[in-house]
Amino acid sequence: MAMVVAQQHRESSSGSIDKHLDAAGKYVRYTAEQIEALERVYAECPKPSSLRRQQLIRDCPILANIEPKQIKVWFQNRRCREKQRKEACQLQTVNRKLSAMNKLLMEENDRLQKQVSQLVCENGYMRQQLHSASAATTDASSDSAVTTPQHSLRDASNPAGLLSIAEETLAEFLAKATGTAVDWVQMPGMKPGPDSVGIFAISHSCSGVAARACGLVSLEPTKIAEILKDRPSWFRDCRSLEVFTMFPAGNGGTIELIYTQIYAPTTLAPARDFWTLRYTTNLDNGSLVVCERSLSGSGAGPNPAAAAQFVRAEMLPSGYLVRPCEGGGSIIHIVDHLNFEAWSVPEVLRPFYESSKVVAQQMTIPSLRYIRQIAQETSGEVVYGMGRQPAVLRTFSQRLSRGFNDAVNGFNDDGWSIMNCDGTEDVIVAVNSTKSLGITSSHSNSLSSLGGILCAKASMLLQNVPPAVLIRLLREHRSEWADFNIDAYSASALKASSFAYPGMRPMRFTGNPIIMPLGYTIEHEEMLEVIRLEGHSLAQEDAFVSRDIHLLQICSGIDEKAVGACSELVFAPIDEMFPDDAPLLPSGFRISPLDTKPCDTQDTLTAHRTLDLTSSLEVGPATNSASGDASSNYNARSVLTIAFQFPFENSLLDNIAAMARQYVRSVISSVQRVAMAISPSRLNPTVGPKLSPGSPEALTLAHWICQSYSYHLGTELLRSDSVGGDIVLKHLWHHPDAILCCSLKSLPVFIFANQAGLDMLETTLVALQDITLDKIFDDSGRKALYSDFAKIMQQGFACLPAGICMSTMGRHVSYEQTIAWKVLAAEETTVHCLAFSFVNWSFV
């Protein structure tokens, strides 16, 4: 029966007449001409209206014998067939991907089983050795095994031996990529799954630091190899890669001698370079391999003068294994195995250079993500803003990152020189009189008056500050640290009109910066966006002229679960026309995490840090007991690097240098204040953050607020089950009414607010200390407060009538009632501050 139906279907589809079921279940015969006419309409409008269908019947005489209802059913069936076809194609694509991923997982499982078997054998051998009486023989053999170098440097002075070096590199690389030459363990915080980019692992115990990635990519092997060999395009820390020698090898492969320079992440350490052999070849199974390792000697390599500012690092056998998949795409294995010579950096920075997690986050994972990004852009899955092509936006991101790295490193061959530094300055000022900013001919006139570029930079150690949280806070609360007039000064250099020293054109900036996203990477680990700062000139003649400033900005490393990832916020002023070849002068921040000491019990302490700075509230003796022993073992340190670049005219160099040094110091001070606010004090209670200088810790203040409210008003501020222990702080923080505390000074300023209070004032705990009490009330509110102030001090509390107050953003806030009361210290004789509760507040 099935064969008969299939045969009838083939006959109907191949003949001149087609059959379709109508709504009543009857077959309607369509001729080939009728089908062609309907298909033409369907291509223009898959879902025509009733009027359109009637018009179709009138315009096409061949459809005159078909009822409008039957035409409607034909279009419904046609849309259904189209939907089924698309779903079938999608299912086939998903099935191919799942089959390839299943194959990859099975291979990974086989490798792990071999590794387990090897470990079991080694364990049995060690047990035998422990029970053996020949301890001296065992020690001698162990010493022999340790001192035998597994990955010694090779000398390339004899070209005839390069092929043997390449073959040996290939064998060692394959043993790491698919074998058990390295004891791989899963990368923390990156479990494989259907939504993950790939499978990531780091070395457990081996010489140097190593990371590995496996993944499925919808590109052909040759295209993948071409992308990965162009290391500067995806590795942001790669300054340059130069091929000195290339000659053919067997199997259609090539051998190359390469010199690579790597930026230093901070001003406290020198940059690295590599002198390597790279071998590209095809295996018998159709796989494409690109492997690389360091060479000893200089050979035909780099000029010693050019490499004087670098420390020679070692690349142990590393590379890429790309295998084609059935049905398209490729399975890729990536291995990065390096020795950064950590002895050459200060001891505090050595954990950064000895961490396999850092190598994974900086090199291995970005390479696989970049390939996936290119694959999605090729297939049209990625949509970017402002009509920009993906390649253009990637170029902007690379230029921002490269410009910031150049400023941080300040290489002599780029024209940088240190300005009047005796080694004791906390802020380094460097000058570059030859820097061109990547200016094209269209911008040469606008920057012809520049004397050069000045960079003020500094590095500082952060203790127990979550890098991702700090970068997010710096991005979303720019007013906490930035001086918009400094941004205006830098931006003016990019315009046709000449710029002046800051202060010669006074500006006023209103509101928060407006963030306009341009694009994201596939896992949103990096964002490219345009920041608009709304400004107006204070000069009378320019009062109605807009002075908006636009900044091009990249932000990365804001995922708190990304262990070992650097967090960056880099920005540069850009013309509002946003040309593709716009000159960029990047400045910004980078936080490089130093590897934490083993203490998994504390890894979750920073998992819920939020931008409302609630972490500064988690203070008090009650929290210390839970982390007493663990806190002594926990060591979450990171290095913050700041670099700001300024254009200058030769006649103003000294003034700009003084301004830049002072500005960077003010930024450092602001960042330190923010860092103290978000630092989890439970890790080190002796240096926990305070709400303001001289204030008690948050938990103590919360108890004082609730006890004083009950003492003066005779009722509880919180529920009776919420007044004991440290739970009182949590319930006070989430209280629906806006609760704020201000100091008892001649000019009262706020020292505390719960979440509702911060939302009402549209501010943060850091900026709260800059808000005075009189700024939030209107005239009637201030009169009511002043008239009842004596009552508050005598009676202990007062109920103020409904009124209007102002947020820091200038928005009006209405409230039904305000309750004010004195907050007494523990001895109930000293008045610590005044508390206000705004009941049922809302924005007008």
From TrEMBL:
<feature type="domain" description="START">
    <location>
        <begin position="155"/>
        <end position="383"/>
    </location>
</feature>
<keyword id="KW-0221">Differentiation</keyword>
<dbReference type="Pfam" id="PF08670">
    <property type="entry name" value="MEKHLA"/>
</dbReference>
<keyword id="KW-0804">Transcription</keyword>
<keyword id="KW-0805">Transcription regulation</keyword>
<dbReference type="GO" id="GO:0030154">
    <property type="term" value="P:cell differentiation"/>
</dbReference>
<dbReference type="InterPro" id="IPR001356">
    <property type="entry name" value="HD"/>
</dbReference>
<dbReference type="InterPro" id="IPR023393">
    <property type="entry name" value="START-like_dom_sf"/>
</dbReference>
<dbReference type="InterPro" id="IPR044830">
    <property type="entry name" value="HD-Zip_III"/>
</dbReference>
<feature type="DNA-binding region" description="Homeobox">
    <location>
        <begin position="23"/>
        <end position="86"/>
    </location>
</feature>
<dbReference type="InterPro" id="IPR002913">
    <property type="entry name" value="START_lipid-bd_dom"/>
</dbReference>
<dbReference type="InterPro" id="IPR009057">
    <property type="entry name" value="Homeodomain-like_sf"/>
</dbReference>
<dbReference type="InterPro" id="IPR013978">
    <property type="entry name" value="MEKHLA"/>
</dbReference>
<keyword id="KW-0539">Nucleus</keyword>
<keyword id="KW-0371">Homeobox</keyword>
<dbReference type="Pfam" id="PF01852">
    <property type="entry name" value="START"/>
</dbReference>
<dbReference type="GO" id="GO:0008289">
    <property type="term" value="F:lipid binding"/>
</dbReference>
<comment type="similarity">
    <text>Belongs to the HD-ZIP homeobox family. Class III subfamily.</text>
</comment>
<feature type="compositionally biased region" description="Low complexity">
    <location>
        <begin position="132"/>
        <end position="145"/>
    </location>
</feature>
<protein>
    <submittedName>
        <fullName>Homeobox-leucine zipper protein like</fullName>
    </submittedName>
</protein>
<dbReference type="Pfam" id="PF00046">
    <property type="entry name" value="Homeodomain"/>
</dbReference>
<feature type="domain" description="Homeobox">
    <location>
        <begin position="21"/>
        <end position="85"/>
    </location>
</feature>
<dbReference type="GO" id="GO:0003700">
    <property type="term" value="F:DNA-binding transcription factor activity"/>
</dbReference>
<feature type="region of interest" description="Disordered">
    <location>
        <begin position="132"/>
        <end position="153"/>
    </location>
</feature>
<dbReference type="GO" id="GO:0003677">
    <property type="term" value="F:DNA binding"/>
</dbReference>
<feature type="coiled-coil region">
    <location>
        <begin position="91"/>
        <end position="122"/>
    </location>
</feature>
<keyword id="KW-0175">Coiled coil</keyword>
<dbReference type="GO" id="GO:0005634">
    <property type="term" value="C:nucleus"/>
</dbReference>
<keyword id="KW-0238">DNA-binding</keyword>
